[in-house]
Amino acid sequence: MALLRFHHLVAAGTLAVGSVGFTLFAGLPASASSSVGSPSGAGDCFARIPTTSYEYQIGYAAGCSGHDEPELDPVSGLAGSARDLTWTAVLPTDGAVPVSTVGPTFWWGGTVTDPNPQSLFGQAFLEVQFYPDAIVDNCSTDGGFHVTLAPDKFSVCSPVWQVTTTSGKENAAFNAELYDGSSKQPLVMNGGDTIKIHFFVASASQGWNVNVSDLTTGQSGTIVLNSKYGPMLPAFGTQQIGNALGWGLVDDTPNSFVWEIGHTSDFTDPAGRLCVAGQTACDSYDTAHWLGFSPLQIKSVTFADGSGPSRWAAVSDLGGIAEVNATCPVYGGPFCTYPWYAFNKTDHGFTYGADYPGTQFDYGKAAQFATTPQCGGPFGPESTFCDTVLSPVP
């Protein structure tokens, strides 16, 4: 099982993932310290985790890294459900602990077509990345971002990750800042604001549209996915499990929510670094840190006809509990607990991290995530982690 090897090699910048000894070569983001009013380390770049094969030894472009991306997947067989969908959520709020401590970004995203003739499988992956406690200064063309510390604020870049068959590197096919309306100023949202994220196709020649609306402030902004090779559009029609990114590590739905864990905060020293369970600087795996702020609330997903998901599912790119067991002497306890999705009856929405007050279903906590890759994909059987359908449906 290559997951065990993965953790011993993180410090050297090498990741081993999958079930048959595949290897990724990943550069670590540069270290930098931050204080109020000063920027985080330039060049932070958190990319999608790819699988790989003996034919395609996929690596990250310099300065980028990937780590665990536990995701929540709305499931629907409705025609067009993967092309037109709207997420409604309430942004988390700083408490005794800043939201940014548990990870430098969470995002909503999906698999898109890639018109680059050298793209692997003709697919790329969009991440609409929200940066907690941060205002964006720059969204770089290489998929990185540069932010300034701003407690309880959120701003957005939208990198689209591709793998090219010529270089074997995962890099950014597109990246754009989310602006406030027609201005060239970042759309800045607040902790506790209710937001809507609408993914839709306005025209095939335009590329997928991503509209983010802050219902609390009335502000909004739109990003249109047009790479230098042309428009990028949703790759699948329906939100069904198995309609997955061909070069990804999970057998999931086309669109999902993810909180990227296993990095230090952008506002610590070292900033934005890969870290693993058991390290006391790795707050992603410490339940007390998650409970130290008010959670993100995912209220709903609706499709073009107004319907919602028939089911929900969850999956981890690195095996959930198995990932923690690889670096902790025992599972559980401080810095050795894997965060999980739960349904909160009080807030009537999904949360991520821990059992917040009002939790009705926690779906076995970290046991909701498959621990070994037992699903297939373009790279063969047992090459991806299977989605776990959450039951009961809230």
What does this structure look like?
- The chain is mostly beta strands and 394 residues long.
- The chain has one domain (34-309).
- The chain is built from three helices and 25 strands.
- The strands form six sheets. Strands 3, 4, 6, 7, 8, 9, 10, 11, 18, 20 and 25 form an eleven-stranded mixed sheet that branches. The protein has a five-stranded antiparallel sheet with strand order 14-13-12-5-19, with no helix packed on it. It has a three-stranded antiparallel sheet with strand order 22-21-23, with no helix packed on it.
- A hairpin with a 5-residue loop joins strand 13 and strand 14.
- The longest helix has 8 residues, at 2-9.
- It is globular and about 50 Å long.
- Residues 1-43 have low confidence and may be disordered.
Low-confidence stretches: 1-43
Number of strands: 25
- Helix fraction bin: under 10%
What value does the average pLDDT take? Answer: 86
Structural class: mainly beta
The shape is globular
Report the sheet-strand fraction.
Answer: 25-35%
Q: Can you tell me the number of structural domains?
A: 1
Radius of gyration, Cα only, in angstroms?
A: 19 Å
Ends apart, CA distance between termini: 35 Å
The H-and-E topology, N to C, reads as HEEEEEEEEEEEEEEEEEEHEEHEEEEE
- Biggest beta sheet attributes: 11 strands, mixed
Number of helices: 3
